[in-house]
Each structure stands twice: as structure tokens, then as C-alpha cells.
Fold:
Amino acid sequence: MMGVLDPALSGGVDLKGIIPKSVAHIFGAINDNTENGKKKYLVRCSYLEIYNESILDLLPKKKEKSIGGGPDSLKIKEDPDRGIYVQDLQKEIVKTTDQLLSLIDLGLSRRKVGETAMNKDSSRSHSIFTVYIEMSEEVEIEGASETYFKAGKLNLVDLAGSERQSKTQATGDRLKEANKINLSLSALGNVISALVDGKSHHVPYRDSKLTRLLQDSLGGNTKTVMIAAVSPADYNFEETLSTLRYASRAKNIKNKPTINEDPKDALLK
Structure:
């Protein structure tokens, strides 16, 4: 999802991942659309991780910067207008690709990683990097100028990999982290199964923080892409097969997204 952000470390080859490339694409599109002055954009971003079923803000607040405090666990809330959201999550206004990439870099440095037998820098948490975009557009209707608003968000999710204790040789904190990772991935699998089934009246979004936060990304007003990472080694045959089955189920979810026009809580409005 991140790739290599520093060109010095990639030998001059572009090895940036999906998140930085998505950000560059968004600002490229915004620059192309604001040339005539009739469209205005507001871009904000947030970055969080779900570690041991606690939601932690990866972008430091001002008080943290000044006194060196760590992030507190945040709560999930629901609102008729805003939908599912994280209370007190920092949202930074960004105006350039470089500004946004520096926030990603800052958030990455605060993520929980640890060494296992299979991975030197294993992610010990799931992370969700969200870009919020609002647009106002002036439209001429019968000689009068009207302003219309649209809003949307892009969730870029980096899931920690499922882990088998016999291979990772995890103990202590690593084992506790692995159990939480596997439980949340299992909950995500159950949500995907319920959505694909169509007959199920209950979708278990509340079984984990991950599924609750991704509720509107999975069964809501959205387009969703899942990328499954698999190993080429025969040693990992069973994990590869399990991952492919997981992704195959997710592929069968059908959503019909519509444009969010004139949202009540748009800041630009």
C-alpha cells in the first residue's frame, strides 16, 4: 500500500505504493478541474490504526507535539448525517501532494510494527488512511448562478496479514497482537459472507472495530476494491489458497453507489 517513498532508497526507480499514487492522482485531477475558477475543492485527510482492538490516531494533535504525549484510544460514533465516524480523529487540511505525503510519512513512523520469524517489520495493526474531498461548483441556470456541493471520501486500508503461530513463532505481546489481528480478519470474512449471501438479515459489522469502521465501505454507498497479497512459495500454499477464497467471496458483493450531492455537513458549504 505504501511502497518505497524515498527515491534514494529505491535507486531512482518509482516504487511508490497505491496510497501515494492515489494521492498524486487526486491532486492532478483537482488541478485540471480548477483552471476555469468555477470549481473549488477542499481536501482533508486522517490516518488511524486499529491496534489490539483500540483505535489510535496516527496524526499527532497539537498538545501531543508540545508535551510529547502518546495517542489515546478513540471511540466510534454514528450520526444520521455523517454516518460512522471516529470521535476526535484529527483531520488535516492539505493543499499539495507533498504536504499529504509528509503526513503519511509522519503517520507511518508512529505505526506499530514488530519482528516475527516470517517478517522483520510485520504490521501489528490495521491502518486506514482517509482522504475527504469536497467540491463546490458554480452553474449558470437561466441566467442565474447557482452553487452546488458534492462530497466524498476515499478509504485506503492496509490490513495486517493473517498469522499462523507455528510459522511466525509469536509469543507474549506478538502472540496477543496476532490473535487480535486474526479475530478482526475473521470478523471481516463473516461480514463479507453475510453481504454476499443476500438472505442474511443481520450483517455482523459490530463484531470488530475494523468491520464497524468499514461498514459504509463494504455494504454502503461506495465502490470498493480489495487487493489480495499472496506468496509465490509452495511453503505458503494453504495461506495462499485461504487468501484467494477470501478475496473471491469479497468479489461477489454488489453495491450501487450514488453521488453525495449537497451534503449537510460539507465544510465548504
In short: The chain has eight helices and ten strands. The longest helix spans residues 172-197. Residues 65-69, 114-122 have pLDDT under 50 and may be disordered.
